[in-house]
């Protein structure tokens, strides 16, 4: 099992990710996706060497399926990510005090659109994370945080108006806690985000067979471990 420092890092990173999302969305900031991508980037750089900086249960699932985290740690990561996200959303709502909030509640064709949009960009996020932050060919690179943050920013700009742009079950649950997503439709984000991440892990292993955890020498795994971050 990983140490408490990893769990604390996941909590802090997810809290500030969701706090930024909440403050920019509640405050109707014009460049919200850029702020969200930026805070994710800096939190990934800040915590990558400690916890891997997942800040996202879907990313943790992808890293689990890729073989770089164990089931117990993955479950613990998901718990602290969800708690950190919910507290971040409630803090943002308190700070901004937006008044009445209309929850996003897709229906009809919009359900299919939201599922596809969330699934595609969660796939993109997890795929980028696995390639820039867990591939032994990229070990020790200095751009992983930038790549991860800009993937989320691009997704938020592209489909935020269609699906809410969560790409992260912790963000989705936090958004529902803050009144931004309808609880009755929360399954849309949970299903799409986890499915997108699982497909990304399968594609990563298909395209990078030499990176399968059980085929890596111990020295190679240890050399790659500092650059294992991920995100939203």
Automatic annotation (TrEMBL):
UniProt keyword annotations, A-Z: Membrane, Transmembrane, Transmembrane helix, Transport
Looking up PROSITE patterns in the UniProt record yields: MIP, PROKAR_LIPOPROTEIN
InterPro entries xref list: Aquaporin-like (IPR023271), Aquaporin_transptr (IPR034294), MIP (IPR000425), MIP_CS (IPR022357)
Tell me where on the tree of life, at the top rank, the source sits.
Answer: Bacteria
Membrane-protein topology = Multi-pass membrane protein
- Where is the protein situated, by its record's location annotation? Membrane
Which family, according to the similarity comment? Belongs to the MIP/aquaporin (TC 1.A.8) family.
Protein name in the entry: MIP/aquaporin family protein
* Organism encoding this protein: Actinomadura gamaensis
């Amino acid at each position: 099992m990983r140490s408490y420092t990893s769990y604390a890092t996941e909590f802090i990173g997810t809290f500030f990710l969701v706090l930024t999302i909440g403050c920019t969305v509640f405050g109707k900031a014009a460049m919200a996706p850029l702020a969200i991508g930026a805070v994710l980037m800096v939190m990934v750089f800040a915590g990558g060497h400690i916890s891997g900086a997942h800040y996202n249960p879907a990313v943790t699932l992808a890293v689990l399926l890729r073989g770089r985290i164990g089931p117990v740690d993955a479950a613990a990561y998901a718990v602290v990510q969800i708690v950190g996200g919910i507290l971040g959303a409630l803090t943002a709502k308190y700070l901004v005090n937006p008044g009445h909030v209309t929850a996003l509640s897709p229906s009809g064709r919009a359900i299919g659109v939201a599922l596809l949009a969330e699934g595609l960009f969660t796939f993109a996020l997890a795929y980028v994370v696995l390639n820039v932050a867990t591939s032994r060919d990229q070990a020790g690179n200095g751009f992983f945080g930038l790549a991860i943050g800009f993937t989320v920013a691009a997704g938020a700009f592209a489909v935020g108006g269609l699906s809410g742009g969560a790409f992260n079950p912790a963000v989705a649950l936090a958004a529902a806690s803050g009144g931004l997503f309808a609880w009755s439709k929360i399954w849309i984000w949970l299903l799409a985000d986890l499915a997108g991440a699982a497909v990304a892990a399968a594609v990563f292993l298909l395209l990078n067979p030499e990176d399968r955890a059980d085929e890596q020498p111990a020295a190679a795994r240890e050399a790659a471990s500092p650059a294992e971050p991920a995100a939203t």
